[in-house]
């Protein structure tokens, strides 16, 4: 009856119900896919083909979105003959026609009318003075008030002597007749027009022909206009023809020259009407472009006329989508370019991360992320052929900054390592620049942004830090876009939109990466520090189960976790991975906690009633039970590996020795201890199957697993020490390390002798601080005990 309970427990519990365990063993098919060089070659070929397809097939310079004043990254030629109405050429022709349209002038007669009024008032004043004061016209004093009043009415400078000579002509009727004759000459001069050259570019001499408004019809016609000097000559000659005396003629000329002023006035409204009439007659300029004609030369800034031609070219190609293009590199040259880049990536990864080259899942992860990332870049590029972006070039200029070029580098940096991520960033940046027309500025900018994101995502243990790293990459893009915009003299609104596009893409990239990480972790069996940190939560169901069902094993796991984390830090391994794996390495003990010494509270040992082989089987079962629980709770593959490997193939020595002793026991129940010792020396151990008492393995395969394997043994052995001293603890740790190495348990772990020495030192330091003794405190009311120093002094 004593063996019934152990057998029931072995089968899965007191109820005897059989429990089906999940197996962590990898199938042969999966193992073949993981390690086969043929699969690796297929991944390589598929990657090259996908990059060629994404980066080159269907990519033409016609889809490039350039803004005025930007430098063309490549030489762009017309893929087909086309014609278009050039608004830019039409505008230039209109400006030329506007410049050739002559100005229109009008004649101003107001000065003449004012002078006629003023001269008649002067004659009336003379007539009145003559009637009131006969003989007064011969006195200068009497004429002075009349002359001063006349000069004040305009810009006149008439002399009293000249007026006195006019008064001496005869009576009032004779004076009126003479003045009217002079006014007729003045009207004729005004009717023809007088200019002084100030509105004709400084030409002050000679006649000129101008467009002026005809007074009779209001039409614009060409007419000659005399200069002010010619007008004065004409006035003097015509006054001399009146047959008066020389002095009278000269006096009359002196008076009437005050009424002669330039009357040719520029008419803006009439000039604009004439220009508008000319513009209405202007026909739109049509430009014919031949196939193969250069639209923009490489490295030159795009002018407004070239920009219009590029837009017309894109619209024509969009309307004629069935055209075939034969431009750029040939297909073979493109394949060679991609092949060279992918080979360079492989050489770099082989030198820096040999483990990745040996793992097809890692290679597949690299290939998938790069191809998908380039596919997204190509998708944003292809959006430039949509009607909205063809018609709105400012919106099309945002597309290069909407491409999420930091997506794959961030994923690779978190799931694999920063070295591979850097080369993936360079690869994606190169092909992004190629897709967008060999743009060197875009290549440098995207690579720099990816590098910033990779640097900021180092040792990311929180998802928020991944988003922050992507945003920093977006800020880098925004900052350099501002600098490029200043250099290219782009409109402020366009630069601000491009900066917003870069920043928004960075934020969106971070959110997408955070969302994709769990999927990629499960698909490619990768574990990030973010997931590991989440597993350190003591409220995890398995850790809570250990706290309740196997508290001794839980405490043991906490100590092993501390030992493993410190040792991993000492040899530059992954301390977080070591801690998490140590926390879960003994979860299988929760199935039968009473069979493990650390959980036996009532001094009842169920192994006392079981034979050694059964006890060894129960002890070994905690590894399989742990793997089963880990698989059910979807723990990372690394944790499952440590659960399997943390005992390696070590011998369960206690039960093995017990089996040897039982086999050596003589039939007589009264056999003495001397008989047992003598029987053991006869080689009875050789008749005990050692395999039954060894763990199934495998042996530790990676550094963190080996550290936990050693920490587990050191922590358990240190519990049996009666007195902990540095010397005794060091000897114990040294003995455990030597025994493990002699047993071959570390043969498959990538640890060097130097690293083993560092691990020993770390264990020694940590255990000494954990197992230190304390001063015994006196009971309440008792006299205080003397400190050791005081006791020694006493």
Question: What does the main sheet amount to?
Answer: 5 strands, mixed
Strands side by side in the biggest sheet: 4-6-5-3-7
What percent of residues are in strands? under 5%
- C-alpha-based Rg, rounded: 53 Å
Structure summary, number of beta strands: 9
N- and C-termini, Cα separation: 63 Å
The structure class reads mainly alpha
Number of contiguous helices: 35
Q: Catalogue the unreliable spans.
A: 1-18, 324-329, 668-683, 783-794
Shape: elongated
Q: Which percent bin holds the helix content? A: 55-70%
- Average pLDDT across residues? 81
Describe this structure in words.
The chain has 35 helices and nine strands. By secondary structure, the chain is mainly alpha-helical. The strands form three sheets. The protein has a five-stranded mixed sheet with strand order 4-6-5-3-7. It has a two-stranded antiparallel sheet with strand order 1-9. A two-stranded antiparallel sheet has the order 2-8. Helix 21 (440-456) runs antiparallel to helix 22 (463-488) and helix 33 packs antiparallel against helix 34. The radius of gyration is 53 Å and the shape is elongated. Mean pLDDT is 81; it is low at 1-18, 324-329, 668-683 and 783-794.
In short:
It is built from 35 helices and 9 strands. With 794 residues, it is mainly alpha-helical. The chain has a 5-stranded mixed sheet.
Summary tags:
794 residues, mainly alpha, five-stranded mixed sheet, two-stranded antiparallel ribbon, 35 helices, 61% helix, elongated, disordered N terminus, disordered C terminus
